[in-house]
Write a structure and sequence with these properties.
Helix content is 10%, strand content 38%. It is built from one helix and five strands. The protein is globular, with a radius of gyration of 16 Å.
């Protein structure tokens, strides 16, 4: 598989009223996807933090999975130790 080549940089993308992506600073992005607001932060370690909120811009349509106290992928890692 060929690696992706960076063809440039953008700080905002608006496709329609329901999809809007904007860079807030070097490591933080804000998104509107339908009724949801997402804040994405890339930590200096490279880890990505995503905070989301539903119902910000419109009535909630669709299913939202609840946050677990221990993410399932971490449970699998812990059980293998």
């Amino acid at each position: 598989m060929d690696s992706e080549k960076n063809e440039g940089v953008f700080d905002e993308l608006v496709v329609d009223h329901w999809l809007h992506l904007e860079q807030l600073d070097e490591r933080e992005w804000w998104m509107r996807v339908g009724d949801a607001r997402l804040l994405v932060r890339v930590e200096s370690s490279g880890d990505v933090r995503v905070d989301g909120e539903r119902g910000c811009y419109a009535p909630i349509l669709g299913i939202t999975t609840q946050e677990l106290s221990v993410p399932s992928h971490r449970k699998v890692e812990d059980e293998s130790r």
